[in-house]
Amino acid sequence: MAEKSDRISRIIDTVLKAAEGDHSVRVDTHDKDDELKPLCHAINKMVETMRKHVAGCKQVEVNFKKSEEKYRRLKENIPGMVYLFAKHPDGSYSFPYVNAASRQLFNIDPDDLMRDSTLITRLIHPDDRERFETSVKQSAETLQPWREELRHVVNGEVRWYDCMSRPEIQPNSDILWDGIILEITDRKQLEEQLLQSQKMEAIGQLAGGVAHDFNNMLSVILGYLELIKSGLSAGNPLLKDVLEIERAASHSRDITRQLLAFSRKQIIAPKTIDLNKLITQTEKTLSRLIGEDIHLRFLPENHLGKVRFDPSQMDQILVNLAVNARDAMPDGGMLTIDTSKVTLDEDYCRLHIECRPGHYVLMTVSDNGTGMEKETLSRIFEPFFTTKEVGKGTGLGLATIYGIVKQNGGYINVYSEPGKGTTFKIYIPRIMEEDEVIEKTEEVSLASGSETVLLVEDDDMVRRMTSAMLKKIGYKVVTAETPLEALSFCEKKDKHIDILLTDVVMPEMSGKDLRDKIKAMRPDIKVLYMSGYTADIILHHGVIDKGVYFVQKPFSLNDLSRKIRDAVEDR
């Protein structure tokens, strides 16, 4: 009996251990006691079954954790703000979940946003808030998905976002939206460029069609005038009137030629030319054209290479730009023409849809005249648009230049500010020599850094592009749209800045004046200037001092990285 009692105690002990989670225990079934043997077998089978179930549950748990980790990484690494947005029965709103992208997109910590949902709505551009509130309300009432493109103001900078979500009612009567917010600022900029390009294309097609038909009519008019003239004697009183009609018709024919050039329907005869040589041959003509009060300088780059261009059209470009510069400098001034070799990389061309990566000859024509407002700049290449008095210009000069450059495979842009002059940059594809080796920019080691840069630029697109470049090479960036905004930031003692990267010409004050004011507060700050104007034009204005660090727009990532390192490491 004692032996049997001891065996029962061992069986009970095994069952208790199995119940506590030890599934390795077993009951000895080799005993001859047939009465307890079936029970021992049953207990062992039960423990083995429990072991298998526990092992299965552990594997499920492992798989679940892996799946959860994968889902978490997906949410955190997606290039947009993933969120859950809830409307509660009492009418209040909250963010039950926000991923880490809120820091990058809105400079808001996810925990702060989950504590206070109004943080993000405060950033919505005032002109879009009513539309945003209406969309959320309609989505809550109809339980339909909604999608809006909204502008937000982040650090004083306007950005565009694509917001989309899907609502559903929860058991507690909450309405819960799950969605994502993606920044589309670059896309909106490209859309604006595309619309401008399409507008110019449409104007060009219209102008070209009108010019073609009008040219045919003028050919008929001038032909009949020739016949009439041949039938009139030298003393005929009608001859004077016929000559006046012929002069007017010839002038109209010249206008149609300019329209055909703008629309790129003019017949051209491109040749391989040395641009430096052609400009040198044109210098005397340009000097006579602009007068003695304006000094003409030509600054050629040696070993420029050659381009394929219609020489007569290049003469036309130089003459038109010189005439415009002369009219912008009624009291005299300086007209500068310089040439250089440039390479436009994919980073730059990605934000400028009109250009293509490649090697170009850049011809820059700058004056220090009256300059232009932004509204005028946006229309200067439109045919018949002119700021001159009636009878002083047709408004076709710059339109013609635009068409010629496009027809020859190049592109043109312009920088100007009221009172600061104007700079035209014309990019012409360069003919590469067979033995010429060009070092690829992507193979160049970029000079990266980790300093904090205060970027001051009043042009939204340039500011965003430059900020993206700086971040790509490791810098921390603080952006300011205006000099006053930059000064306000620098007044905060707890904010650290290593280098000021500022545009030279801005509406409120010059880059030099901004630099002087910031230097008074932060004597050790480094400074790098940037401008679309050439360095010599900027120096002539006295806007910056000789010997300072300067990078000319448009710049490549390599140009910017090298120049900013030079400025940061200056002793």
Task: Describe the protein.
The chain is of the alpha/beta class and 571 residues long. It has helices at 2-19, 37-77, 101-106, 110-115, 118-123, 126-142, 185-230, 238-262, 275-290, 311-328, 346-350, 374-377, 397-407, 460-472, 483-490, 511-521, 535-541, 557-568, and strands spanning 81-87, 93-98, 146-154, 157-169, 175-183, 271-273, 294-299, 306-309, 333-344, 358-367, 411-416, 422-431, 452-456, 476-480, 499-503, 526-531, 550-552. It has five domains: 2-76; 87-183, Beta-Lactamase; 189-262, Signal transduction histidine kinase, dimerisation/phosphotransfer (DHp) domain (Helix Hairpins), CATH 1.10.287; 271-431, Heat Shock Protein 90 (2-Layer Sandwich), CATH 3.30.565.10; 445-568, Rossmann fold (3-Layer(aba) Sandwich), CATH 3.40.50.2300. It is built from 18 helices and 17 strands. The strands form three sheets. Strands 6, 7, 8, 9, 10, 11 and 12 form a seven-stranded mixed β-sheet that branches. A five-stranded antiparallel β-sheet has the order 2-1-5-4-3, sandwiched between helices. A hairpin with a 5-residue loop joins strand 11 and strand 12. It is elongated and about 155 Å long. Mean pLDDT is 78; it is low at 437-443.
Total domains, how many? 5
CATH domain class of the largest domain: Alpha Beta
Q: How large, in whole angstroms, is the Cα Rg? A: 37 Å
Number of helices: 18
* Main beta-sheet strand count, sense and barrel state: 7 strands, mixed
Provide the CATH superfamily of the largest domain: Histidine kinase-like ATPase, C-terminal domain
* Class of secondary structure makeup: alpha/beta
Helix content: 40-55%
Shape: elongated
